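Table S5 (text form). Sequence records supplied for joint modeling of the two-component complex.
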Amino acid sequence: EAGVTQSPTHLIKTRGQQATLRCSPISGHTSVYWYQQALGLGLQFLLWYDEGEERNRGNFPPRFSGRQFPNYSSELNVNALELEDSALYLCASGGETQYFGPGTRLLVL
Amino acid sequence: GQQLNQSPQSMFIQEGEDVSMNCTSSSIFNTWLWYKQEPGEGPVLLIALYKAGELTSNGRLTAQFGITRKDSFLNISASIPSDVGIYFCAGSRPGGGGADGLTFGKGTHLIIQP
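The corresponding structure-token record, covering 223 residues in total, follows.
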């Protein structure tokens, strides 16, 4: 059974640009969670999507947004990138028990 | 956001030693999870705990869900070089079913000295 997949593995952008990150959950999972893992800040909950809808978000500004597609894959969009957005972005699927993908490392220059 | 209090922050041990780490919280959790993360990779689930008092093993790893639902520990017996990595505890709050996302500790960095 395939695990959670994410693309791209690395992404380099400049300040003010937009970044788009993608995630495919484990087959049969309808929920996708996004987390940010910034240096020194640990893993922080960003967004939760289930059945195509945004169900909850963590303490992040609206320029962090996304969507979930009918096949349950998901996109995370980060607009107006700032230097402090540089981090590893992790996607997970499941519910109370979550399984993580390998992450996308975003570097904002 | 809220984080769990995980300790120790790092451990320097000899191969073959046993390891113990724990997480505490001021809030109760429905589920406690332990993950291991290696450089450049996502966290890998090691053990999931669903009931207060539950003790679960996975090979050389043993974890317990505290009876107060506010803490958990992870033990690793007879450590080997491939145990090196960062271990995270995570919890899921009551009523959420994962809705609030997981709350994470800051991690325990395990280093094994030759």
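Note: Chain B has a mean pLDDT of 92.
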